[in-house]
Write a structure and sequence with these properties.
The chain has 160 residues and is of the alpha+beta class. The protein has one domain. It contains 5 helices and 8 strands, in the order βαβαββββββααα. Bound molecules: zinc ion. Zinc ion binds next to loops.
Length: 160
């Protein structure tokens, strides 16, 4: 459901709104092969009418499904914006979309989530990736042959 507000209900007071935006609504026009929206966008906001527009303040949260840029593993990446704030202006270039008394605040939520997306998703900050892992394996293969002190050597001795 888009976040649409009846401006007549907001006149001169604040209003609490909480709900979810469907993942498909966020994904429209979004094209990043490494990121998909794995949950709806949850919002919990206080709206306040101001002379220039509607001030939105509150929390946004969503869980992404990302592909690690280094090891290609898919992992869940939660995003939480506890201090989301935006001013939806009545007029001007950045003006909100209005239909009669209704204002559509969805684009503002979408924009801030887009800004919060990881630019280079990693499954964990220290992920060493595929290439390095392969290299580590090669190094292990080059370990010199056992001198009898390895666990295998000890097993051999037990058998005797
Ligand atoms: Zn990784």
């Amino acid at each position: 459901m888009p976040l649409r507000i009846d401006r007549r209900q907001l006149e001169g007071k604040t209003m609490q709104v909480a709900g979810e935006l469907a993942a498909e609504e966020l994904a429209t026009g979004f094209n990043d092969p490494l990121i998909t929206f794995a949950s709806p966008l949850a919002y919990d906001l206080e709206l306040e009418e101001q002379p220039q527009g509607i001030l939105m303040q509150g929390t946004l949260s969503i869980t992404l499904s990302c592909v690690c840029g280094r090891c290609l593993k898919t992992f869940a990446h939660p995003i939480e914006l506890p201090d989301f704030a935006a001013l939806a202006e009545y007029e001007g270039e950045e003006a909100m979309i209005q239909e009669g008394d209704f204002a559509d605040l969805t684009p503002y939520l979408r924009e801030d989530i887009y800004l919060g997306l990881p630019t280079n998703p990693l499954c964990r900050p220290e992920c060493r990736g595929l290439a390095r892992k392969a290299k580590a394996r090669d190094l292990r293969l080059e370990v010199p042959p056992s001198d009898g002190s390895s666990p295998w050597g000890a097993l051999d001795q037990l058998k005797l």
